[in-house]
Amino acid sequence: MYFWVLAAILTIVAILVVTVPLLRTPKRALEAFEFDKELYKDRLVEIDRDLALGRISAEEADTARAEEGRKLIALSRSDRSGDSPKAGLSGRPVATIAAGIIAIPLATFGLYSMLGTPAAPDLPLSARASGDPAGQSITELVGRAEGYLAKNPDDAKGWAVLAPVYTRLGRFEDAANAWQNVYRIDPDYPEIRATLGESLMGVSNGIVTELAHELFAGELEKNPSSFKARYYMAMALAQEGKNEEASQAWQALIETSPPDAGWLESAYAFRDQAREAAGLPALNDAPQSAGAAPGPTQEQVAAASDMTAEERQQMITGMVARLEEKLVEDPADKQGWQRLVRAYIVMGRKEDAAKAIETALASNPDDAAFAEQMKAARAELGN
Q1: 172: CB partners within 8 A, 6+ apart
Q2: Residue of 123, 233, 118, 122 lying closest to 186 (CA atoms)
């Protein structure tokens, strides 16, 4: 019974912190991703400069570049990819595709309600002695859930509760391992093949790997109507350069999805990208979301890629200023605060970052997961 108190809290936290990003539109997600990407480029310039000055070795530079790429993948909301596959949506940066893969699909599909009660016995009294789980941080809750599962490794429902929390925390390998355990224990768990394939995409930076493709295909054999598997099979077609087929797959998904499905906005966006890449006429039938913030145009993105380091820095400074203004108007925008704090840290504005963290926490006092993220950022500042 004790584990399910933890499970309930973890599930609620996961639902709250994962579903909020779904309120964002593809354009706004693209804007956020471009912001993160410019910061990423700026950090690469710094790494190259340190290497040239002999401050770091070539191996350290490679490690630093890989780490910056990992951060971009994990943090952008939509956000997120570094390397482009050989085939994909021609004329479109695969980073934008990978961003959409993880920011919207993983968030939309990654949670499942827990049904029934596990047969595993309650934890012993000694394991409960550290207090009420409701008063603990998400890190402590995850640690206690991990402790429970270390003693009860065959509890499929326990792994299924923990896996989406790992995903939200950016621990994609742990999430994949957790879903692998669910698959091992209960091969008939709802949509487990599609869910495991999805988690593997988190590990592979948003690319549909051969194993993930096999899992999605296996899911469709068992359940041809699986929205999740169909979504990622359409994504696979796009990554293989089969843009016309991908656009047809997206269209079929759109036509059969519930009108309020969380994945519809991204499906429309990816369908339109596939049609453009295939040379097909635009349909212009995607529903418009109220209050959508305009994202950068293709021309603006292309121009940004040709900027000098100084011009790019000016662009980042302008983005930061606009973000500051938006947060004055909407202090409840948690993702905005995360981007602003990250920008301040990259720009070396540690005092501004510390002030932003305090304002963000004061503006969102009831979100435990967000508080953990801000505290982690504060620790990065050495505070």
Answers
A1: 74, 166, 199, 202, 203
A2: 118
Residue that is written with structure tokens 């097909």 in the block: 280
The CA–CA distances, whole Å, from 317 to 159, 374, 378 equal 43, 22, 22
Last residue of a domain, one of 153, 188, 207: 207
Asked, for residue 274, whether it belongs to a domain, the answer is: no
Give 244-312 as a DSSP string: HHHHHHHHHHHHHS-TT-TTHHHHHHHHHHHHHHTTPPP---PPPPTTPPPPPPHHHHHHHHT--HHHH
| Domain boundaries, position 189 | 2-207
Span between the terminal Cα atoms of the chain, in Å = 38
Amino acid in position 31: E
Are residue 322 and residue 186 in the same domain, yes or no?
Answer: no
Check which CATH number belongs to the domain holding 327 and give it. Answer: 1.25.40.10
Closest CA to 232 of 201, 188, 278: 201
Q: Residue 297 has what DSSP assignment?
A: P
Q: Is the pTM of the predicted complex or chain greater than 0.70?
A: no
- Structural domains in the chain (count): 2
109-153: pLDDT as tens digits? 432 222 222 333 333 333 333 444 444 567 788 888 899 999 999
For residue 230, tell me if it sits in a domain: no
Same domain, 160 and 14: yes
> Does 171 share its domain with 27?
yes
Q: For tokens 């943090």, name the residue.
A: 75
- Length of the chain (residues): 383
Q: Do residues 3 and 128 touch, judged by C-beta distance below 8 A?
A: no
Q: What is the pLDDT of residues 45-82, one digit of tens each?
A: 667 666 666 667 666 766 666 666 655 555 444 443 44
Q: Indicate the pLDDT class of residue 313, thresholds 50, 70 and 90.
A: low
Boundary (domain end) residue, out of 177, 207, 237: 207
